[in-house]
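The protein record quoted in full:
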Amino acid sequence: MSTFKTPSRRHFIQGAAAGATVLAMPFAPALAAYPDRNINVVVPTSAGGGADQMLRAFTAVWTKYLKTNFEPSFFPGASGRVGYEVFMGKRDADCYNVLFGNMGPELLNWVLQKPTFKLDEYIYFGRVDNDPSVVFVGAKSKFQSIDEVIAEGKKRKLNVGTSRMAHPASIGILALGEHTGAQFNLIPLAGGKNTIAGAVTGEMDLSVLPAGVVVARGDALRTLLVFDKKNPLGSTLNNAPAVNDHFRSKLPPLVSARAFAIHTKAIEKYPDRFKALESTFKQVFADPEYKTSVERLKGVWKLIEYGNVADCKEYADGILSLGERYKALLSGKSEKTEKKKS
């Protein structure tokens, strides 16, 4: 059974009926226009990172349709957990508070350690991108191909930088190690900037992150492998091969997807407000200014992909299932370790 739920038609009908009743009442006060103040956005990562970049690119255009401004607040810590706890525990469910996060790694958090709230108490309602995980090295690295990495990994354990342990990219490199016999020591470096720095300086033998963050650094990095069905950017990602084609493996696509989330109660209490959020959110993708905004902030337009409530739910359910499947790897336990314990 799915953990996340899609808002039911009943919620919207009840809200619409309530609104009609108010309008029908004699001398009823005029309903306040929504929004009549700024929208607060909780971001469960640090300012200046990939989420901040995507948020600014999107809200720069969204403000035109929703006719209000967006005020981001950044709450890094515990691989995103801090931000979610703030959003769920300290922000009102009124459609004036939303969260903008990276669904993949943040959902994987809940696989490793349950949150203090129930997962159906919030939903993701608007996805902005679909970003495949990649393996990369610094431009000065001795590794020119993923085959060289695997060969070296069979001789010694390689240090791999990642933004956080619970991440689709982390699953990818650990699963690749199991498939090929290469040894990887995954080291969470608290964010994309540090993960890239680890590869550029050579402190890490290699690193893993979503492709969009890697592309933004241009020639400073060299991509070696893509954890998706194909390389969506070709030469921009150094013509790196797709994992299953290259290694005859059967890994599922390991992609990150940034999205806006909202309290489920906010949808139930204010369906008209939520409808305004949904409809204006979708309008942004058809606006030419959005592409300009993304590219101005060094984003990759080819990775931008609209997703609604149902799309987000499908992704969320899939990543939670994937997390359960690879939970032992993410928690640092292999099947061999478990067998020894038993």
